Protein backbone atom coordinates (compact mmCIF):
# COMPACT_ATOMS: atom_id res chain seq x y z
CA UNK A 1 0.00 0.00 0.00
CA UNK A 2 2.79 2.38 0.95
CA UNK A 3 4.78 1.82 -2.23
CA UNK A 4 1.74 1.90 -4.51
CA UNK A 5 0.51 5.14 -2.96
CA UNK A 6 3.86 6.83 -3.46
CA UNK A 7 3.97 5.61 -7.05
CA UNK A 8 1.01 7.87 -7.83
CA UNK A 9 3.06 11.01 -7.17
CA UNK A 10 6.14 10.40 -9.31
CA UNK A 11 7.19 10.41 -12.92
CA UNK A 12 10.81 9.33 -12.58
CA UNK A 13 11.04 6.20 -10.37
CA UNK A 14 14.22 4.34 -9.44
CA UNK A 15 14.34 0.67 -10.39
CA UNK A 16 14.39 -2.14 -7.85
CA UNK A 17 17.60 -3.38 -9.46
CA UNK A 18 19.32 -0.10 -8.64
CA UNK A 19 18.26 -0.34 -5.01
CA UNK A 20 19.05 -4.02 -4.53
CA UNK A 21 22.50 -3.43 -6.02
CA UNK A 22 23.35 -1.52 -2.84
CA UNK A 23 23.09 -4.78 -0.84
CA UNK A 24 20.26 -3.66 1.40
CA UNK A 25 17.93 -5.89 3.35
CA UNK A 26 14.46 -6.32 1.73
CA UNK A 27 12.63 -3.87 4.01
CA UNK A 28 15.25 -1.19 3.44
CA UNK A 29 15.05 -1.81 -0.29
CA UNK A 30 11.27 -1.31 -0.21
CA UNK A 31 11.59 1.84 1.87
CA UNK A 32 14.31 3.41 -0.27
CA UNK A 33 12.43 2.53 -3.42
CA UNK A 34 9.35 4.23 -1.97
CA UNK A 35 11.36 7.35 -1.21
CA UNK A 36 12.83 7.36 -4.67
CA UNK A 37 9.40 6.97 -6.22
CA UNK A 38 8.18 9.99 -4.31
CA UNK A 39 11.34 12.12 -4.58
CA UNK A 40 12.92 11.42 -7.98
CA UNK A 41 16.06 13.44 -7.19
CA UNK A 42 16.89 11.71 -3.90
CA UNK A 43 20.46 10.42 -3.73
CA UNK A 44 21.36 7.39 -1.59
CA UNK A 45 25.04 6.47 -2.06
CA UNK A 46 26.92 5.00 0.89
CA UNK A 47 29.68 7.40 1.93
CA UNK A 48 31.58 6.28 5.02
CA UNK A 49 28.49 4.27 5.92
CA UNK A 50 26.19 7.25 5.49
CA UNK A 51 23.50 8.72 3.24
CA UNK A 52 23.51 11.86 1.17
CA UNK A 53 20.00 13.03 0.52
CA UNK A 54 18.82 15.75 -1.79
CA UNK A 55 15.15 16.62 -1.91
CA UNK A 56 13.45 18.48 -4.76
CA UNK A 57 12.53 22.12 -4.33
CA UNK A 58 8.84 21.27 -4.16
CA UNK A 59 7.51 18.15 -2.45
CA UNK A 60 4.05 16.81 -3.41
CA UNK A 61 1.77 17.70 -0.52
CA UNK A 62 -0.19 14.40 -0.63
CA UNK A 63 3.01 12.65 0.46
CA UNK A 64 2.82 14.14 3.93
CA UNK A 65 -0.73 12.91 4.45
CA UNK A 66 -0.08 9.31 3.39
CA UNK A 67 1.12 8.01 6.79
CA UNK A 68 -1.90 9.59 8.48
CA UNK A 69 -4.38 8.13 5.98
CA UNK A 70 -2.76 4.69 6.08
CA UNK A 71 -2.72 4.81 9.87
CA UNK A 72 -6.49 5.31 9.92
CA UNK A 73 -6.91 2.45 7.43
CA UNK A 74 -4.78 0.05 9.46
CA UNK A 75 -6.53 1.05 12.69
CA UNK A 76 -9.84 0.30 10.98
CA UNK A 77 -8.54 -3.12 9.93
CA UNK A 78 -7.55 -3.88 13.53
CA UNK A 79 -11.04 -2.94 14.64
CA UNK A 80 -12.66 -5.09 11.97
CA UNK A 81 -10.46 -8.01 12.98
CA UNK A 82 -11.33 -7.51 16.67
CA UNK A 83 -7.67 -7.57 17.67
CA UNK A 84 -8.52 -6.17 21.10
CA UNK A 85 -10.85 -9.10 21.78
CA UNK A 86 -8.29 -11.62 20.54
CA UNK A 87 -5.61 -10.20 22.84
CA UNK A 88 -8.07 -10.26 25.74
CA UNK A 89 -8.68 -13.94 25.08
CA UNK A 90 -4.98 -14.75 25.48
CA UNK A 91 -4.77 -13.05 28.89
CA UNK A 92 -5.98 -14.53 32.20
CA UNK A 93 -9.14 -13.11 33.74
CA UNK A 94 -7.08 -11.65 36.59
CA UNK A 95 -4.97 -9.52 34.21
CA UNK A 96 -5.11 -5.76 34.69
CA UNK A 97 -6.87 -3.96 31.80
CA UNK A 98 -3.68 -1.98 31.14
CA UNK A 99 -1.22 -4.84 31.64
CA UNK A 100 0.05 -4.72 28.04
CA UNK A 101 0.40 -0.95 28.24
CA UNK A 102 2.60 -1.52 31.29
CA UNK A 103 4.63 -4.03 29.31
CA UNK A 104 5.02 -1.51 26.50
CA UNK A 105 6.17 1.23 28.87
CA UNK A 106 8.76 -1.10 30.43
CA UNK A 107 9.97 -2.14 26.98
CA UNK A 108 10.18 1.48 25.84
CA UNK A 109 12.26 2.43 28.88
CA UNK A 110 14.50 -0.58 28.28
CA UNK A 111 15.05 0.62 24.72
CA UNK A 112 15.91 4.10 26.01
CA UNK A 113 18.38 2.68 28.55
CA UNK A 114 20.04 0.47 25.96
CA UNK A 115 20.40 3.25 23.38
CA UNK A 116 21.55 5.76 26.01
CA UNK A 117 24.09 3.31 27.41
CA UNK A 118 25.41 2.69 23.91
CA UNK A 119 26.06 6.43 23.53
CA UNK A 120 27.91 6.58 26.88
CA UNK A 121 30.17 3.67 25.90
CA UNK A 122 30.67 5.14 22.42
CA UNK A 123 31.96 8.38 23.96
CA UNK A 124 34.71 6.42 25.67
CA UNK A 125 35.51 4.29 22.62
CA UNK A 126 35.61 7.23 20.18
CA UNK A 127 37.00 9.89 22.51
CA UNK A 128 34.07 12.29 22.30
CA UNK A 129 33.83 14.37 25.47
CA UNK A 130 30.81 16.06 27.01
CA UNK A 131 29.10 18.46 26.42
CA UNK A 132 29.60 17.79 22.69
CA UNK A 133 26.42 16.21 21.33
CA UNK A 134 28.00 15.08 18.05
CA UNK A 135 31.59 14.57 16.95
CA UNK A 136 33.57 16.23 14.19
CA UNK A 137 36.47 14.74 12.28
CA UNK A 138 38.76 17.01 14.28
CA UNK A 139 37.53 15.43 17.52
CA UNK A 140 37.71 11.82 16.40
CA UNK A 141 38.82 9.86 13.36
CA UNK A 142 35.74 7.71 13.83
CA UNK A 143 33.32 10.62 14.17
CA UNK A 144 30.85 9.15 11.67
CA UNK A 145 30.54 5.94 13.67
CA UNK A 146 29.92 7.82 16.90
CA UNK A 147 27.39 10.12 15.26
CA UNK A 148 25.46 7.10 13.97
CA UNK A 149 25.16 5.73 17.52
CA UNK A 150 24.19 9.13 18.90
CA UNK A 151 21.69 9.69 16.11
CA UNK A 152 20.03 6.33 16.83
CA UNK A 153 19.35 7.47 20.40
CA UNK A 154 18.29 11.02 19.55
CA UNK A 155 15.88 9.84 16.88
CA UNK A 156 14.21 7.73 19.58
CA UNK A 157 13.48 10.90 21.58
CA UNK A 158 12.17 12.73 18.54
CA UNK A 159 9.30 10.27 18.35
CA UNK A 160 8.72 9.93 22.10
CA UNK A 161 5.91 12.49 22.34
CA UNK A 162 4.10 10.77 19.47
CA UNK A 163 4.33 7.42 21.27
CA UNK A 164 2.75 8.93 24.40
CA UNK A 165 0.01 10.56 22.34
CA UNK A 166 -0.61 7.34 20.43
CA UNK A 167 -1.00 5.30 23.62
CA UNK A 168 -3.32 7.93 25.10
CA UNK A 169 -5.52 7.95 22.00
CA UNK A 170 -5.67 4.20 21.60
CA UNK A 171 -5.73 2.98 25.20
CA UNK A 172 -7.66 5.71 27.00
CA UNK A 173 -9.87 7.53 24.52
CA UNK A 174 -10.56 4.65 22.13
CA UNK A 175 -10.64 2.08 24.94
CA UNK A 176 -8.21 -0.33 23.28
CA UNK A 177 -5.46 -0.75 25.91
CA UNK A 178 -4.29 -4.18 24.78
CA UNK A 179 -3.85 -3.02 21.19
CA UNK A 180 -1.98 0.08 22.37
CA UNK A 181 0.30 -1.99 24.60
CA UNK A 182 1.10 -4.44 21.82
CA UNK A 183 1.95 -1.67 19.34
CA UNK A 184 4.06 0.16 21.93
CA UNK A 185 6.01 -3.02 22.69
CA UNK A 186 6.62 -3.55 18.98
CA UNK A 187 7.87 0.03 18.66
CA UNK A 188 10.26 -0.45 21.59
CA UNK A 189 11.74 -3.65 20.13
CA UNK A 190 12.12 -2.11 16.68
CA UNK A 191 13.80 0.97 18.16
CA UNK A 192 16.53 -1.26 19.59
CA UNK A 193 17.09 -2.87 16.20
CA UNK A 194 17.04 0.61 14.62
CA UNK A 195 19.90 1.70 16.88
CA UNK A 196 21.90 -1.48 16.28
CA UNK A 197 21.57 -1.28 12.50
CA UNK A 198 22.28 2.47 12.43
CA UNK A 199 25.79 1.91 13.77
CA UNK A 200 26.62 -0.73 11.15
CA UNK A 201 25.05 0.68 7.99
CA UNK A 202 22.89 3.78 7.97
CA UNK A 203 20.69 2.45 5.19
CA UNK A 204 19.94 -0.75 7.12
CA UNK A 205 18.08 1.23 9.78
CA UNK A 206 15.31 2.08 7.33
CA UNK A 207 13.63 -1.31 7.65
CA UNK A 208 12.88 -0.97 11.38
CA UNK A 209 12.10 2.72 10.86
CA UNK A 210 9.36 1.86 8.37
CA UNK A 211 7.82 -0.65 10.77
CA UNK A 212 8.00 1.84 13.66
CA UNK A 213 6.19 4.39 11.50
CA UNK A 214 3.56 1.77 10.67
CA UNK A 215 2.93 0.91 14.34
CA UNK A 216 2.94 4.55 15.45
CA UNK A 217 0.54 5.80 12.80
CA UNK A 218 -1.76 2.87 13.47
CA UNK A 219 -2.08 4.06 17.07
CA UNK A 220 -2.60 7.63 15.94
CA UNK A 221 -5.10 6.30 13.40
CA UNK A 222 -7.48 5.57 16.24
CA UNK A 223 -7.79 9.31 16.63
CA UNK A 224 -8.90 9.44 13.01
CA UNK A 225 -11.48 6.72 13.60
CA UNK A 226 -12.92 8.73 16.49
CA UNK A 227 -12.96 11.87 14.33
CA UNK A 228 -14.90 10.05 11.60
CA UNK A 229 -17.71 9.44 14.07
CA UNK A 230 -18.56 13.14 13.68
CA UNK A 231 -19.49 12.33 10.09
CA UNK A 232 -21.75 9.47 11.10
CA UNK A 233 -19.21 6.67 10.67
CA UNK A 234 -18.96 4.57 13.82
CA UNK A 235 -15.91 2.30 13.84
CA UNK A 236 -15.38 2.10 17.61
CA UNK A 237 -18.13 0.88 19.92
User: What is the arithmetic mean of pLDDT?
Assistant: 77
What is the structural class?
mainly alpha
Question: Fraction of residues in helices?
Answer: 55-70%
Counting copies of identical and different chains, the oligomeric state is single chain
Strand-residue fraction?
Answer: under 5%
Count of helix runs: 10
Total DSSP E strands: 0
Largest sheet: none
Show the helix and strand layout:
Elements: H1 2-7, H2 16-20, H3 26-38, H4 62-80, H5 83-90, H6 99-126, H7 143-158, H8 160-173, H9 177-200, H10 206-228
Helix pairs in contact: 3-10, 4-10, 6-7, 6-9, 7-9, 8-9, 8-10, 9-10
What does this structure look like?
- Helix 8 packs antiparallel against helix 9.
- This protein starts with a helix and ends in a 9-residue tail after the last helix.
- Helices cover 66% and strands 0% of the residues.
- The protein has ten helices and no strands.
- The N terminus is likely disordered.
- The chain is mostly helical.
